[in-house]
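Summary of Year 1 activities. Much of the first year was spent building the evaluation harness for sequence design. The harness presents a backbone, in tokenized form, and records the residue chosen at every position. We chose the following record to illustrate the format because it has been used consistently in internal testing since the harness was completed.
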């Protein structure tokens, strides 16, 4: 008799915990950008990608709730965060960050770059163009056309630097297609470390496409939330951001695991 009672109590505890702790919804783009985001569309594949595994690890270490991944088109993600359809969203650094999101701040109120993922904007080019690997990328591309993923936050910065921008490509595949057809002179991509995508590019495009050694510039990615979620879950959000500040090498560790597959 005691065992059924204990079992029933455990079910009540689980039900109560889930009711008090709804799923944490992390949104990200529905584009294929290996090795960080794998697959296309709304479905989350397995493996899901280095960046997805990193977000899962961060949430699991700091938030005692189920994590739900939500894939959406790039133009819908910020609206989803603003309206509360999702709770977190990776946001790349840009000249003007959206005012409707909450990002980690330091004691002076400035954006806390120690609690961000450091990034580089690299450039892929045609091997047939025989550009030196150490070409000074920002200068070379002045007046030339750079393909960037749709919605890339650094598009305006490229234009300001005198680079023509083609941001009609939805994903890596379509932009490299334009590169092969000579509709663009290079393809810009956000990576963690400069060489992170070398294996994926080599596996997909062989020796046709190469990476220039000098990135366009560096930046950061923060995991943003919205004011309503932050107000209710401030301690958990701050804990998640703090975890990111002490696990900067985790992306590289995960990348190595994907490289061995």
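For this record, the design step produced the sequence shown next.
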């Amino acid at each position: 008799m005691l065992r059924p009672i204990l079992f029933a109590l455990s079910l009540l505890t689980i039900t109560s915990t889930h009711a008090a702790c709804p799923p944490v919804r992390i949104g990200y783009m529905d584009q294929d950008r290996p090795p960080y985001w794998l697959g296309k569309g709304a479905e989350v594949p397995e493996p899901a990608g280095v960046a997805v595994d990193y977000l899962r690890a961060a949430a699991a270490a700091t938030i005692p709730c189920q994590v739900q991944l939500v894939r959406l088109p790039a133009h819908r993600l910020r609206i989803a965060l603003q309206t509360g359809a999702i709770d977190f969203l990776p946001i790349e650094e840009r000249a003007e960050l959206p005012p409707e999101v909450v990002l980690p701040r330091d004691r002076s109120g400035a954006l806390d770059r120690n609690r961000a993922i450091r990034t580089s904007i690299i450039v892929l080019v045609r091997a047939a163009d025989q550009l030196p690997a150490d070409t000074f990328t920002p200068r070379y591309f002045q007046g030339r056309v750079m393909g960037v993923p749709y919605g890339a936050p650094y598009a305006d910065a490229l234009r300001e630097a005198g680079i023509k921008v083609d941001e009609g490509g939805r994903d890596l595949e379509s932009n490299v297609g334009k590169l092969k057809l000579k509709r663009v002179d290079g393809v810009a991509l956000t990576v963690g470390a400069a060489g992170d995508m070398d294996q994926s590019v080599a596996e997909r495009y062989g020796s046709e496409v190469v990476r220039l050694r000098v990135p366009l510039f560096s930046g950061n990615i923060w995991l943003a939330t919205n004011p309503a979620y932050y107000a209710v879950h401030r301690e958990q959000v701050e804990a998640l951001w703090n975890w990111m500040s002490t696990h900067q090498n985790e992306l590289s560790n995960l990348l190595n695991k994907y490289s061995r597959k």
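The chain has two domains: 23-102+221-259, 117-219. Quantitative recovery figures across the full test set are reported in Table 2.
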